[in-house]
Amino acid sequence: MSHELEEVIRKCSEEIRLDPEDFWAWMARAYAYANNGDYNQAIEDYEAAIDFQPEWYDGTRNWTGDGGYVWLNRASDNISKGDFDQAIEDCGIAIWLDPKDCWTWTARGDAWIEAGGATIERGETYKRKRDYDEAIADYSEAIRLEPKETYAWMARADAYAAIGDYGKAIK
Prior knowledge:
Elements: H1 3-18, H2 23-35, H3 39-52, H4 68-81, H5 84-97, H6 102-115, H7 132-145, H8 150-162, H9 166-169
């Protein structure tokens, strides 16, 4: 663990000890744990942040949605640790809370594909077919929301290629 991450975790832990309902301390410590690869601890801290999320904080990157960002972070950590079913569930909550966040739809698309055992790698097709229809639907929604987001386009193309629909993959 880097010295910087250790320091963030130490400071956040102290703040949580002093004020166990400090939403931002839970969020910052969760992020530090995730950056260190300790996804289980990060997920625990995101769960605490969800419990203590202030009413005025809506949880989105653009500060206009209804709270999906905490759930998206937790989903990302669940993907990283291989708990794809929980990641899909977390993304579903994030989408319900903030249906216009393109990254939430993209993350759930990733989780559908990862849940099947394949990985997303740009420039490669998938070896086996899994839940690609669900992934394609989520990538399509992400593209509808943010047409200039190239990752969603690439991920959808990979999913189409994985099921052999090369015409749609190159569109």
